[in-house]
Design brief:
Blueprint (H helix, E strand, L loop, with lengths): L3 E9 L2 H17 L3 E5 L13 E7 L2 H9 L1 H10 L3 E9 L3
Length: 96
Amino acid sequence: MPKAYWIARVDVSDPETYKKYVETGKPAFERYGAKFLARGGKTESLEGAPRARNVLIEFASLQDAHDCYHSPEYTAARAIRQPVSEGEWILVEGVE
């Protein structure tokens, strides 16, 4: 079974509230075995419009990535994040 990834590109308008989102989402990430591969480090935009923050999270499967996003824990975190940020979140299945 191939691994799967969340790719998030986000601009944050309220960093203090965004910190609450990160803490609130932590139980979901732990529950579904999320492994953060990149989180807000240096970036270089090669094509397209850049975002200030870019995150890459690995999951054991596409189902785990999907279930994490739709979990009660992450749903609560998402409610905190959405008013203070704008971005794109996608799930991508890896290559076997």
